[in-house]
Write a structure and sequence with these properties.
This protein is α/β, with parallel strands linked by helices. The termini are far apart. Strand 3 (about 40-45), helix 2 and strand 4 (about 65-70) form a beta-alpha-beta unit. The chain is about 30% helix and about 20% strand. It has helices spanning about 30, 50-55, 80-85, 110-120, 160, 175-180, 215-225, 230-250, 280-295, 320-335, and strands spanning about 5, 15-20, 40-45, 65-70, 90-100, 125-130, 155, 170-175, 255, 265-270, 300-305, 305-310. It folds into two domains: about 5-225, 3-Layer(aba) Sandwich (Aspartate Aminotransferase, domain 2), CATH 3.40.640.10; about 240-335, Aspartate Aminotransferase, domain 1.
Amino acid sequence: VAVLGIHQEPEKAAFYVPEYLHDEGFDVWKQGAHAGPPLAVIVSTDAHYSIARTLRIMGWGDRGVIAAPIDAHHRLTPEAAETALGQAGDRRVIGIVAAAGSTATGAFDPLHELADVAERHGLWLHVDAAHGGGVALSETQRSKLRGIERADSVVWDAHKLLMMPALVTAVIYRREAHAYEAFAQQASYLFADATPDQSWWDLGQRTLECTKRAMALELWSALRTQGEAWFGEVVDRQAELARQLAAKVAAAPDFELALMPESNIVCFRHLGSVTPGELDAHNRMLRKRVIEDGTFYIVGTQLPGGFYLRSTLMNPLTEEVDLDALLDYLRELSLPCRP
């Protein structure tokens, strides 16, 4: 069994792509990724940049990514994944990367249906739940993760929805053995001469980093102190604030909502008095003025329809009145703002 893995940008997306390639006559771990056919994975066009970066670090190049288009809700559909698989050509597709709360829009891919595709074709399913994994603690929202239990690996950042200090992140495997197979090396000066089940506590045997702080302790302590239900309420409140902001944007004639939020991320843009061809430059300049002024903080994202402002509701002290203040503030900053 050969397992190919790398842990890159752990605070954003940890990516492990194991596959059983002995039947094809080569061992990836010993002979390298180029000992057989070119390898690739299927991702959505909204996938986090660290996925493509990781594949390039592993030497797969641009062809290591087969980008499938998203639907109107910014989700990777099983139909799009099947189409992308048919476009592989000479590449050996070994996995699908799905999103549970995409970084750009907070969209949740249909995980259960994508798991069907992966199972049908013998592919590894990795779920980037770095942002949205925290909804598992919400009774009203955890259904968005339906099918995540079928994933082979999941990345989750507790410092996103659960207010943990950065960095608190985890890569979770459905099968424990895969965590060790990804880094099957020997180092007598570090690793005990024991089987994984005998030295489960030794993170050096299943992470890229040799030294790693005990991040799980921070999350465990918070959960023990506050309880899961309390964190579920925090997640629900963030989502409710996002819905409130989206409703205010949709009702305002001088703003445009990109899509209804599925999590705590709202993408929108200011229309002002500019022409459609000037909207991107107008909102880029507006975002620049926001950062320079410092009263609020927002980022931007490039979507198929253009450049949009992106607000992530995470501060536990945010109230509805702050949302109104944000829109009024953007209006005020836009007055001298011309592309």
